[in-house]
Design goal:
By secondary structure, this protein is α/β, with parallel strands linked by helices. It is built from eleven helices and ten strands. It has helices spanning 21-29, 38-47, 62-74, 95-103, 116-123, 141-150, 167-178, 202-211, 231-249, 251-262, 266-280, and strands at 5-9, 32-35, 54-56, 78-82, 107-111, 131-136, 157-163, 183-188, 196-201, 219-224. The relative contact order is 0.11.
Length: 285
C-alpha cells in the first residue's frame, strides 16, 4: 500500500462475512481508521482480529476532522474511512473529507464491497438497467409527500432508505403518490438473520406491513418501479433528440443514445430517422 492515501472502504451491511480480502488488508495496514461510530466499528474490527486506532468521523464533526485527517495524510499516513454499514458516503458522512483530500492532491482510492442499494436492486425483481437513488425520504409528512409528488412521473426504478418507525407512513405516502398498483419491493434487514423481501403492488405491501409487526422492525430499502412510459410520447421525444444528434455522431449512434434516454426501441428510432433521411435525400448511415 502506498503512503499518503485515503481509502474509502466498504464494510458489511449485516453479515460480517461480507467483507473483501482487500478491505481486511487495507484496514490492517491503515495508520488510522475513521469511523462513523467507533463503538460499532470496533466490534467489526475485533471480529476480524484487527486492532487499529479509531477516530470518529460523523456529520457533526466532519468539517473539523477532515482538516486534521488531511494534515495526517500530508504527513504520509494511510487513512481508511468506513461507515456503520456498506459503502461510505452513500447517505453517510465523508464527502467533505474526500473533497479536501482531492484539493490537497492526496490519492483517494475506493475499496468496493457491500452496498444496500445494489443488494436490494439485485433481488427486487424490478428493472435495474436505470435507477434513481433518493436516500432517506424526509421525516416530516408534508415534505415527504411533496418529494414523492415530484417523482410521480420518474420512469426509472426508484430506491429509498427507510427506518422501522416511519415505514408504514412512507408506504402509505408512496401509495398515494404513485398509485396502489405500482410494483415495489420492501427489502428488510438485508444479509441479516431476519432478512425478508416482500414484492408486489404497493397496496398489497402496505397491507402486509400493517398486519405483521415484524415487518415494521429493522432497516429497510424500498425499491419502486418507475412510472409507465408513454410509448408514443417517448418515441416522439426520442426522434427529436436523434435528429439533433444525427450530424455530430451519426444516425446509428444518435438512435442508440436517444432510445436509451427515452426508454424506447433503438430500432424504431433508427427506422424513423432513416425515413427522414430518405425524405430529404440524405443517407441514414
Amino acid at each position: 500500500m502506498p503512503h499518503a492515501c485515503l481509502y474509502i472502504v466498504a464494510t458489511p451491511i449485516g453479515n460480517l462475512e461480507d467483507i473483501t480480502l482487500r478491505a481486511l488488508r487495507v484496514l490492517r495496514e491503515a495508520d488510522v481508521v475513521a469511523a462513523e461510530d467507533t463503538r460499532h466499528s470496533r466490534r467489526l474490527l475485533a471480529h476480524h482480529g484487527l486492532d487499529r486506532p479509531l477516530l470518529a468521523l460523523h456529520e457533526h464533526n466532519e468539517e473539523q476532522q477532515a482538516a486534521r485527517l488531511v494534515e495526517r495524510l500530508r504527513a504520509g499516513e494511510r487513512v481508511a474511512v468506513i461507515s456503520d454499514a456498506g459503502t461510505p458516503l452513500v447517505s453517510d458522512p465523508g464527502y467533505r473529507l474526500v473533497r479536501r483530500a482531492i484539493e490537497a492532491g492526496i490519492a483517494v482510492v475506493a475499496v468496493p464491497g457491500p452496498s444496500a442499494v445494489t443488494a436490494a436492486l439485485s433481488v427486487c425483481g424490478l428493472p435495474t438497467d436505470r435507477f434513481v437513488f433518493e436516500g432517506f425520504l424526509p421525516a416530516r409528512g408534508t415534505a415527504r409527500r411533496k418529494a414523492l409528488e415530484a417523482l410521480r412521473e420518474e420512469p426509472r426504478t426508484l430506491v429509498f432508505f427507510e427506518s422501522g418507525h416511519r415505514i408504514e407512513k412512507s408506504l402509505d405516502d408512496l401509495k398515494a403518490a404513485f398509485g396502489s398498483e405500482r410494483p415495489a419491493a420492501i427489502c428488510r434487514e438485508l444479509t441479516k438473520q431476519f432478512e425478508t423481501v416482500l414484492r408486489g403492488p404497493l397496496d398489497a405491501l402496505c397491507a402486509q406491513v400493517a398486519d405483521d409487526p415484524d415487518q415494521r422492525r429493522g432497516e429497510f430499502v424500498l425499491v419502486v418501479a418507475g412510472a409507465p412510459v408513454d410509448a408514443e410520447r417517448g418515441l416522439v421525444d426520442a426522434l427529436a433528440l436523434a435528429r439533433a444528434l444525427r450530424d455530430p455522431v451519426g444516425a446509428s449512434q444518435a438512435a442508440r443514445i436517444a432510445a436509451r434516454i427515452h426508454g424506447v426501441s433503438r430500432r424504431e428510432v433508427y427506422r424513423l430517422l432513416d425515413a427522414d433521411s430518405a425524405d430529404d435525400g440524405t443517407s441514414g448511415a
